[in-house]
Amino acid sequence: MADKIRTLDQLRKIREETRKKMSIREGKYRFKITIPMGTSGIVMGAREVMKAFLDAIEEHGLTDVVVTQTGFMGSRNIQPVAIVEDDQGNKVTYGNLTPEKAKEIVERHIIKGEKVQSYLVLTPLE
Amino acid sequence: MMEELSLHIMDVLQNSLAAGARNVELEIEEDVERDRLVIRVKDDGKGMSPEELKRVQDPFYTTKRSIGVGLGIPMFKWVAEHCGGSFRMESEQGKGTMLEAVMRLSHIDRPPMGDLVDTLLGMVVSSPQVRFVIRYKSGKGEFVFDSREVKEILGDVPLSSAEVVGFLKEYFAENLGAVMEAA
Predict the structure, then answer these.
(1) Which residues pair with B86 in a beta bridge?
(2) CATH architecture assignment, domain B5-179
(3) Average pLDDT rounded to a whole number, residues B71-87
(4) What does the pLDDT look like over A49-105, one tens digit per residue?
(5) How many cross-chain Cβ pairs, A to B, lie less than 8 Å apart?
(6) Taking chain B, what is the end-to-end CA distance rounded to the nearest angstrom?
(7) B147-154 vs A11-23: helix axis angle to the nearest 10?
(8) Which residues on chain B are in Cβ contact (under 8 Å) with A37?
(9) Cβ(A27)–Cβ(A75) under 8 Å?
(10) pLDDT bucket at B71, cuts 50 / 70 / 90
(11) Any idea where the domains of chain B sit in the sequence?
């Protein structure tokens, strides 16, 4: 293990750099993305959708988006699902997601502030 | 069905989170010589009564509503037992739950480990309130990860910020990749 390339220590530099960007908006997040990861979500591809969100966040250098998960939510036939909430508490639910759709949600909803109407689901969540 | 062991692992970890665990330990051991793969998860969640414990493992009695666990456990149990191994769970109310799945590494039906890096990255990043300790052991060495170390370094910087995600992805890929053998 002595020759490993990355060590956790390198995170210290990343912390300082990210902090500088964060201080502009006082450490608050602008969006929270919640992904239900119950068994049905996982079977339907929630992991790949979560990865796509994380990849898009990385690709666009976002520091003000929090990705979180929860257990089973909503009906099985709309999985994978993502709930996007802004810092004003406005919440929408996207369903039947794919990695491509997740990327599009980041690019349109998170970055440009426009909801992706065609992926919205109205099914009430539990 | 779940085609990768890492998806079963994700499902089990999710159960631990649903049980309110603050500490979750995942241990994976590949033993090529003895032809064994062991996957063990321990949590300090709310635990289950002996009756609930029996029920979560039974595909015909499990219902989502009563205890919050779906068919994930029966599926994982079936995979382990079908692949020349065993499956056991222990739980105590108020203390936590332990799950252990053993299978033959060389069994023809053993699902591949699959994308463990994405699985662990997703779990660790999306549940910053939980301490994950991950151990992966094989003939090539051992990888140990403790999410508390990461949080101590990061302080108030969120785990899901761009550069942290990028770093952790590479970190897992390199260090886990270095010890993953037959999976």
Answers:
(1) B102
(2) 2-Layer Sandwich (3.30)
(3) 94
(4) 999 999 999 999 998 899 999 876 666 788 999 999 999 989 999 999 999 999 999
(5) 133
(6) 19
(7) 50
(8) 10, 14, 122, 126
(9) no
(10) confident
(11) 5-179
Q: What percentage of chain B has pLDDT greater than the value 90?
A: 81
Q: Please state, in angstroms and rounded to a whole number, the distance separating the CA atoms of residues B38 and A37.
A: 24
Query: Could you tell me which residues are beta bridge partners of residue B132?
Result: B24
Tell how many helices (H) and how many strands (E) occur in chain B: 7, 6
Q: Which B residues 41-100 touch A at CB under 8 Å?
A: 64, 68-72
Amino acid letter for position A66: V
Three-point CA angle A41, A63, A92, nearest 5°: 45
Contact A42 B127 (CB under 8 A): no
Residue B117 gets the label, from left (phi > 0), alpha (psi -120 to 50) or beta, of alpha
**Cβ–Cβ below 8 Å for A39 and B126:** no
Which two structure tokens, joined as six digits, stand for A117?
A: 């109407």
Residues of B in contact with A71 (CB under 8 A): 14, 17-18, 68
Structure token pair of residue B103: 């299978």
**Cα–Cα distance between B39 and B98 in angstroms, integer?**
11
DSSP string, B117-156: HHHHHHHHHH-TTSEEEEEEEETTEEEEEEHHHHHHHHTT
Q: Is A50 on the interface with B (CB under 8 A)?
A: yes
- Taking the C-alpha atoms of residue A66 and residue A29, their distance in angstroms, rounded to an integer, is 7
Identify the structural domains of chain A with CATH numbers, from first to last: 29-119 (3.40.30.10)
Q: What's the pLDDT score for residue B151?
A: 92
What one-character DSSP code corresponds to residue A85?
Answer: E
Compute the half-sphere exposure of residue A98: CA atoms within 13 Å on the CB side of its CA: 2
Say if the Cβ atoms of B163 and A17 lie within 8 Å.
yes
Q: What is the ipTM of this complex?
A: 0.84
